[in-house]
Amino acid sequence: MTARHDPFRWSCGGRILDWSRGPLLMGILNVTPDSFSDGGLYQDPGAAVEQALRLAAEGADIIDIGGESTRPGAAPVPTEVELSRVMPVLEGLRGRCQAALSVDTTKAVVAQAALAAGAHIVNDVSACMADPDMVEVLRAAGAGVVLMHMRGTPRTMQLDPHYGDVVAEVRRHLAERAQALMEAGVDAGQIALDPGIGFGKTVAHNTRLLARLEALVDLGHPVVVGLSRKSLVGALTGRPATERLAGSLAGLVWCADRGAAVLRVHDVAASRDALQVTMALKEQVSRE
Ligand code: HH2
Q: Model pTM?
């Protein structure tokens, strides 16, 4: 499947996110007590709004606000709890933030409320399979959507992941999900794809997917990658989540060089510097 829209322009509600000059940075804001690296830091809405503004000032193009942890083993959160975490942050940011706003949710009710409060993107780690109402919410709002690959659910995904050919299977699944959304009336230009690093994958599966990122870029949709501070970086460096910045930046540079459109990161300022150097060198190569 090849999409016929311009893959450098991601249509997100009222905004077009143009990444023709290089990948965009999606800054992570987890408004949860239990996220794997920043859980509990931004539970107070005032602190969360300040952190979002700080990420935007550091160069985040998108702020991704999550009210439910998806770390391996995490339990689902009731809708009212997720709403009570996410909505005060979106309301606090109204009119104060230049960055596009994304909500990291698999629930249509949360997505709809977030879009009505000014969010532009729904980042759905279930690729719109968890909630049958999600696709219609996206279609009606014209919102941007990230379709992420996951095997199982956060509670079960790391138990014993198996694939024949991980790259082919993830590619096929994402292509099928994009096709299903388009058949339901979502515009191709709204859809971004994500291999879901760490979601039902071993270290070998994750490294294979990153090594062959072009296989996903080829599908013709913007590709989002999140590897910031993840256990993949821990496994390769032997470092705990608090000491994975250098490893995360190496992964970011790799993905930027291979055509990723959006990089989902905790450390925006450092990631911005790494991206600027990478893109300057890529531009030089294309001039020679
Ligand atoms: N990773 C996490 C959460 N959401 N969304 C996309 N599109 N891609 C990802 O790789 C991705 C994601 C997990 O990381 P984090 O938000 O830092 O932790 P937690 O799920 O524990 O809140």
A: 0.96
Dist. CA 8–CA 261, nearest whole Å? 8
What confidence tens digit (pLDDT) does each residue in 22-31 have?
999 999 999 9
The response to whether residue 36 sits with its C-beta less than 6 Å from ligand 1 reads yes
Residue with tokens 């013709």: 220
Asked whether the beta carbons of 267 and 248 are under 8 A apart, the reply is: yes
Whether ligand 1 lies within 6 angstroms of the CB of 30 is answered as yes
Using most ligand atoms within 8 A of CB, pick from 25, 121, 148, 197 the residue to mutate for ligand 1. 148
In whole angstroms, give the CA distance from residue 170 to residue 173: 5
Tokens of 53: 């503004």
Residues 16 and 120: their CA atoms lie apart, in Å, by: 10
Output the CA 138–ligand 1 centroid distance in Å.
20
Give residue-wise pLDDT tens across range 108-141.
999 999 999 999 999 999 999 999 999 999 999 9
Closest by Cα among 50, 88, 37 to 67: 88
For the chain, which domains are there?
Answer: 9-149+164-287 (3.20.20.20)
Residue 59 and residue 34 in contact, taking contact as beta carbons nearer than 8 Å:
no
Catalytic residue among 107, 177, 201, 230: 230
> What does the alpha-carbon distance between residue 50 and residue 207 come to, in Å, rounded to a whole number?
35
Concerning whether 264 is annotated as a catalytic residue, the answer is: yes
Letter for the amino acid at 40? G
